[in-house]
Amino acid sequence: MILTVRTPLELRCPDSTARQELADRLSRRRELFERAADPTPHPVRDPYLFPIMAALVPVATSRGGEVAYPGDPMCLYSALSLTVERSVARLERGLPEQPSLDDVAADWGRYPDDAYRLAEDGPRSVLVADSRTTDGHVFDPRIWDDVARTAFITELRALRPRVLLLSSVSAGHRYALEMAELAKEHAPGCLVIVGGRHADETVRYQDATGTADLSWSSTVEVIRDGRARPVVDFVVAGDGSPLLDLLLRAVALVMTPESGTTSVEEVLDALALVAAHDGTIKGAGNIVGLTADEAVLVPVRGERIDASQLPSPYQAFSVRARFGIFTRAGSSPVGSRTAHVMTLDACPFKCTFCSESIQVSKRPTRFAVSETEHVAQRIEQLVDWGTEAAFFDDPVFWGGNWKAITDFCHDLARLRARNPQSRSFEWGAQLTVDVVLNRAKAQEVHEALDLMRENGCTYVYIGIESMAQQVMRNVGKNLLRRNPEAWVSKVREALSTIRDHGIRVGSSVLFGLDGENRDSIEETIEEIGRLIDDGLLVMASPNILTYHPGTAITAAHGQDRLDYHSRKDNRPPYTYFEEAYPEVVSRLLDEDDIWFIHEVSAKRWGSTRNSAAESATPVGA
Q1: For residue 588, what pLDDT is reported?
Q2: Which end of the chain is more exposed for a tag (fewer CB within 10 A), N or C?
């Protein structure tokens, strides 16, 4: 299979020829669907709306003894926001008199009402095909085993989707390929589109040279060289929401009624027509179409679209997660109903191991620092939907900008003043040691921490990574390395500062970084234990370094061929850690080291380790 790169789709106005071609296509499509429409006055289903299904690809492979890791549900929810909004609007207004680009659309159903949002909780248990809400079109098995596989097949046969959307992190990619294969078998003619963090990490386009840059572990490459069967039709990487909306409109433009197949070649050709329709293109990234003979990469270079221009990710989905770290609402023994919120697309820092670093994603902030009021309004909306807590999943809350944090707290204070229901709402966020210890803004930091606590912040999560100086000097996280202070003392001071402002602190600890050996492992476990003994940590989560495509440490360790495609059922001790599989964890750790980390940290940290998994990991999505 050859690789072809097309001319980038860029901001441009459509010419008269393109306008006429699109108008002709729309007229022919309207006639085609009218001939195929149900002759009864009130058809059971709008013939112009085609069935669609999305799935959050799981990571885990057994139902006991492992750390629960749901993948990245918010990546999927965010990517679906525009296409779902367009579908719901089309459903509500009906078919326009004149042929329109949005005549044919995916059938996502209608937005959940308030009663549905309050009633639905925890992982989805209702079959996708039985639901008429947008929330009911996402298959979310959490575990990939025989039970989940049977359920997935049942839903494919019931819904018969024309399009299946799979969102996967790297650790779930092997199961995404299996789910795609099942879709081809049990929903013939179904187009399979893969996106998510793994796609973002493995599909790049070099603007300077006009060439594709595909990781060996990308979906495109494993199909091109025969490591996986050709069961994926499109891969979307980059700004998921506008790019997926563009792609699905192109699919709809060439869609045939009922069960007719839709060719990848036709969709690729339709992309330019759809992009030119409005005279502008939104978002940046890459769409790859996989035909029988070639992989065609289409770079999209539209204008940036920030989060304030997009619907809330929860507009179409109920808040199902519960975090054990939030208990103020007292509505459940497993914690408060908790939403995920983000203010960033990427971390502004450059840690060598992190796939969310700006060096890897090359993407700007999600919200501008001037849009704090908009985020507070999103919180108010979540409260109205029955949400009891929120966790800001940003690698660093508001990018570590203390003015933005302060402004957000003032906006939240105004919300709490006018909405009594929001006064019991609590939230948490992620910060870093150096952001908390910003000496130049010490007074601003202390005032902001007070404001955070006064306006509902009860928890801060900090990535400590290691307590061994020989490890931290290589990470890129300890930004103030010229400062003579030792990392251990800085960690202790940062945690003490947050605790002294009445906010609890949890942490992540990462083993397997450069400089790691058994001595540094023991040192880190013991030093974290002392922080727990002194009441500075309420939760500590041990993790094993897992290689992600595109990170600095992956390149430095020569791990350019990561097996994220072969089907494997994971086993202990790897199952005790998020994302860990034998072939993709740090080369500096052997299996005995991983057993040692698991057993010794459990003994030394006691119940504070992961507290247990409830505090660190959400129940639901």
Answers
A1: 95
A2: N
